[in-house]
């Protein structure tokens, strides 16, 4: 279920060609292309060239986009963006279907998967549509810019482009890995009509309504689809999430992108575009919202989120019936103590399993200290399955050790009650995930209800079938959760594995009797084999490079310079800059800028850099407001600057390139800084509007250029192939040169 199908060869003209799409990916993801870089401009040029070659006229939306963020202090990100759009006319020329992917990359990532694969697929789908008969509705292809900076391109589209009002459906394609199935994990609400269309049209539909809860409520992530949804555009969000160790790193390159995943993404994009473009988008369809999940044989199941409480109510009735029957039997035997002991036994098992897995996880981090340098190990999947084996063996041994105190029916009733309580919580907190506990709870409640009337092989057969159904439901979701939440969430997932083992304990009893301790020994052996394999993959190599970080920071005011790093300790390459024992600092000149919890710091000889040119264009007092216009030009072609001032928060409004980027509100969150992307060699003009009694006397500029070339010395060793810049976020520049200067105004 979780492996993309092999590529199907179809007639060339009208079928999606993964080979042609991969050729586009190689051009798009030849090198990192963040906003403001020369490579970014080259990718935009390539897209325009390819669109013209296909016979389309590209619409360019070139503007300045901005957004305000909180952490909890507020800051503003602004960027010069260049959205590229293509409109494929339909027969009606009324409603439109939006197909979206972003063409900018993260700072140090070539962006083959994120999001070059989607952009390449969009070009390939455009080629096919050019040779096909017209569809009913228009199709708008949005190659959005500056997604990695905070969804700025999509914000500019929905707020300012006239085509946005025509969009009725949005299909957004993303990636958080480089392989695996194309997962539909988010929809707008209500979604009944959308999900039914998806189930009908998609190539090998694969979806989980529980994954949205992980993505939004646990990981707090957003994509361009968040902007479309907030703008009132219905739609769906897609991504592939396996291979997450490559995400936002140099490893997100064309060679590591699974071409089967690329093909599956492209075929789905084509099918869904055709389907929705030929659908009557004015028909409201069925009301309500649906949850959805897959089973291993590929079937997509839909269920009404409005009806999940009847499912839980059915489970409650079955469990209540079971409890009454057990209570009567217990009363006859006068063994009340055993009745109340069973929940304690179950909770003890879960607690011990959690401790075992926590110790297992902590032990791995202790033995393999290099894992601290990684968001998660390259061999994390080996550890996940090894932990599953260890958990299963541990549970069986614990169950056998506690068997003398376990009354099987009373124990099962206790497990069902606790499982049901978890299901009610899940239904309230994560409605889309109610299937994860509701269906397994229902299956085992049915099994135990039959068990009140059957004995021997009858109950064994029913319990076995229901237990198999439970694992068919639970196992794929746990695997997806591992890839969504990462290696460090495995101890929590193993507690769920243990709870599921307890839930299906009726089916395990015959196995315990037949195999005894051989069964847990088998799982321990499998776990050990996986650990041996993981050990062989534990070291760093060109295929599994070590991430590290180094930043040169020069403060022109004090003429002091420092090497900075976010790593726990220097490695062989960064040691030439940081030394063997750098200072560990949490405060200082640049520490506030990078917002790291701790930094490795070493003083170094300053290299004088050309500071930005800053001039006052105009300052005036008008209508009880003080207006200040400042022009800034980088002399280093730096793509990114940050502006700060002691009284920046007093500003009522702030403009950049004549666009309003900040309006003081009643949020109470002070404005800390302004971050401006895409500066380059062009001048930027900022306008500050302050109260009449306020005047901006000083401006602090931090200028960032993300390469070390301008300070490189011949005697320094170049970065070895076994290392890469660590995963970079906008507030954590890597392999960068930072300049800080104060300007009196």
Keywords:
745 residues, alpha+beta, Aminopeptidase, 3 domains, 15-stranded mixed β-sheet, five-stranded antiparallel β-sheet, 19 helices, 41% helix, globular, metalloexopeptidase activity, aminopeptidase
Notes on the structure:
It is a single chain. The protein is α+β, with helices and mostly antiparallel strands. It has 3 domains: 18-73 and 81-294, 3-Layer(aba) Sandwich (Aminopeptidase), CATH 3.40.630.10; 308-536, no CATH class; 543-745, no CATH class. The protein has a 15-stranded mixed β-sheet that branches. It has a 5-stranded antiparallel β-sheet with strand order 15-16-21-18-19, with no helix packed on it. Helix 14 (457-485) packs across helix 16. The chain is globular, with a radius of gyration of 29 Å. The mean pLDDT is 88.
Low-confidence runs of at least 5 consecutive residues: none
How many angstroms separate the termini? 63 Å
Q: What is the name of the CATH class of the largest domain? A: Alpha Beta
Number of strands: 24
Number of domains: 3
User: In this structure, how is the largest beta sheet organized?
Assistant: 15 strands, mixed
CATH superfamily of the largest domain: Zn peptidases
CATH topology of the largest domain: Aminopeptidase
Second CATH tier, the architecture of the largest domain = 3-Layer(aba) Sandwich
Strand content: 15-25%
Please specify the SSE layout and strand pairing.
Blueprint: H1 18-28, H2 38-53, E1 59-70, E2 74-88, E3 96-102, H3 112-130, E4 138-144, H4 152-160, E5 167-175, E6 183-187, H5 192-201, H6 209-218, H7 224-230, E7 234-240, H8 259-277, E8 290-294, E9 300-304, H9 308-333, H10 336-367, H11 380-401, H12 408-429, H13 434-451, H14 457-485, H15 490-503, H16 505-515, H17 518-536, E10 546-548, E11 551-555, E12 560-565, H18 575-578, E13 583-585, H19 591-594, E14 599-604, E15 613-622, E16 625-633, E17 640-644, E18 653-656, E19 659-663, E20 671-677, E21 684-691, E22 698-705, E23 723-725, E24 736-744
Parallel strand pairs: 2-20, 3-4, 3-5, 5-7, 10-23, 11-24
Antiparallel strand pairs: 1-2, 2-4, 6-7, 8-9, 11-12, 12-14, 13-14, 15-16, 16-21, 17-20, 17-22, 18-19, 18-21, 22-24
